[in-house]
Amino acid sequence: MNDKVIGKLKILADAAKYDVSCSSSGGKRKNENKGLGNAEGMGICHSYTEDGRCVSLLKILLTNFCIYDCAYCVTRKSNDVQRAAFTVQEVVDLTINFYRRNYIEGLFLSSGIFKNADYTMERLVRVAKKLRQEEKFNGYIHLKTIPGASEELIKEAGLYADRLSVNIELPSEQSLQSLAPEKNYSEILLPMGSIKDQLVQAKEESKLFKATPKFAPAGQSTQLIVGATAESDRQILQLSDQLYKGYSLKRVYYSGYVPVSTDSRLSIITEPPIIRENRIYQADWLMRFYGFDVKELLDEAQPNLDLDIDPKLGWALRNRHFFPLEINTADYEMILRVPGIGVKSAKNIISARRFAPLHFEHLRQMGVVLKRAKYFITCQTKSLQRQDFDSEQLRRRILFGEGSVRSALLTQQLDLFRQVG
Amino acid sequence: MHFYTYDGSFEGLLTVVFEAYERKAWPTAIEPEQLAQPSMFGETVQVVTDEGKANRVWQGLKKRLSASALESLYYTYLWEQSGLERLIFDYARLVFDSPESVEGNYTAPFVLQVQQIHKQVHREKHRMEAFVRFQKTADGLYYASISPDFNVLPLIVRHFEKRYADQRWAIYDASRRYGVYYDLRQTSFVQLENPGVTPRQQGKLSADQYDENETRYQMLWQVYFDHVNIPERKNPKLHLRHIPRRYWKYLSEKQPRLL
Hints:
The complex is a heterodimer of chains A (421) and B (259). Chain A folds into two domains: 2-297, TIM Barrel (Alpha-Beta Barrel); 320-405, no CATH class. Chain A has 16 helices and twelve strands. Chain A has helices spanning 2-14, 88-100, 117-133, 151-160, 173-179, 185-208, 233-246, 274-289, 294-297, 311-318, 332-335, 343-352, 360-365, 370-373, 391-399, 408-420; strands at residues 28-29, 39-40, 47-48, 54-55, 57-61, 106-110, 140-144, 163-165, 220-226, 251-256, 325-326, 377-378. In chain A, strands 5-6-7-8-9-10 form a six-stranded parallel sheet. A two-stranded antiparallel ribbon of chain A has the order 1-2. Chain A has a two-stranded antiparallel ribbon with strand order 3-4. In chain A, helix 3 (117-133) runs parallel beside helix 4 (151-160) and helix 7 runs parallel beside helix 8 (274-289). The N and C termini of chain A lie far apart (51 Å). The model of chain A has no long low-confidence stretch (mean pLDDT 90). Chain B folds into two domains: 2-124, no CATH class; 130-254, no CATH class. Chain B is an alpha/beta fold. Chain B is elongated, with a radius of gyration of 22 Å. Helix content of chain B is 42%, strand content 13%. Chains A and B meet through helix 1, strand 3, strand 4, helix 2 and helix 12 of A and helix 5, strand 4, helix 7 and helix 8 of B.
């Protein structure tokens, strides 16, 4: 068994790594049966890969045999790669033994589709069921929902899993039709809708009956591929916005497309669009935690995020009429919108100014990035700068002036352009 | 001038607060006994730890502070950097002397500093919850060594008790030379006295003490770690920010490849 498992793990971890979801938080599963594991509260990143991503879960495919031929996917039927499949018991053993050594928070199990959707989904559910019932495992389980699987199977999956996800992958129906002709939006959105309904139902019932079985307590998430097809950032973020609002998703993940195929239907890129992916994540955060509407960040005139500056700074530069803001009197919601002030410093400001009027030195100590913020705020009507700048000048000052360093990623990618050009 | 010394324990430090109030003699400096230099000027008070007095101070703080502020004070003690006594004392004094709650008053330098220390210690605690790597021994014990920046071992016990309720485990702080051991019922503090060996060797397992499958799972973990990486996205700077080199020595995925 020894060598076989090593070989399978290589293939099936390789095949699963383009799924970027790694979250292990939000579960409420406590260790009440003196069993193994506990998934309440905060997620934990147990390690980090050399690309800087968090390793929280054992993220593998059950198999990379697949009947579909989606152009963007490394596991597509026509791709000439080694194929492998784990047995249910092998996945259970790996999960338990990794977990006991504190390597992981739990399991993220996805799969290529073999035979049909239900057959595949049934196997995934069997792994989760075995972990919960036979191994008394209370760690985190994230199951991929296979589009087209029956509602009963999804319902059963939700009983054992902490999180369920259906990946949309391509940000428009049109791209999906061209790159994954066997799939369609309604088939993807159907299970998403049914998971949402079950989540709502479980919540309602748990108000009435304490012993209601939990249904995917950490909610559902999805992933969109960025840069494989021609969608603008605006299209992508509008879709996310609809998903957050319409399907109460916990997270939308964005995966900068890593070229794994030379199919002519795909955009021709040589490097994954890492900066673009990062800007989209920043915008996603602004929508979820900073009270921004997607319309404030992007519109028809400007359908893509500025790669040089973060979207919050971009918004502030387009909306100078809100500034400067007096830190000692402004509302929390507005303080949050100042470039250089995050959620934590905004809260500290609100808390501290009850005791004494704040100076710039206070702000600096609380972690405000004055290099950025100083152009947008006053403290007791005082400003840190004597001159007025227009937005273009400000942008340049923040980007290049006063010894401000550009993000390492940006420099790295600009270097690459230089090498190519 | 009033110099206070104490035995280095948290209760001892709280006793200092009590004594200072009783004497109305505010400390010029507070130091652990073993570090204190005799002073030519002023009075040196050698405070003897008194649980009753310490408890009265703690209860007094409890009445005026939230659980998280109390936690911050204890974290400041575990921070173990010089000046911690002064910070805790000043904070306590501000609490007792202010008619209103001082929490969240980040315009007071030591309130802000205690909050920042809380953050630092908390981060180290969280790192240890992530970076502990158990090795299974032949007699079924799951064993790990750590050497955290701050004294966070007492803070992570609860986390591991809840998580590994059904296995025997031990975590040993090699730089502070003490550990904790969970025997399926309760966790106790343990000392490993082996004066001949260096702290790095102390509490390190050799391969012949391993369970028969231990090497195999370490190898599988290394395989997984290597294959979940996307080489096209290599970003060493980000990698090091998340997982600084000083933690590598205990991480099995950062050891020479077994395969």
